[in-house]
Design goal:
Length: 24
Amino acid sequence: MFGSLAICCFLLSHLNYFNLFGIS
């Protein structure tokens, strides 16, 4: 369970970075 949560947070943080670069 903790592994899945860590992966989800990791992916979400990366998606946020990609979105920021895409908007910028």
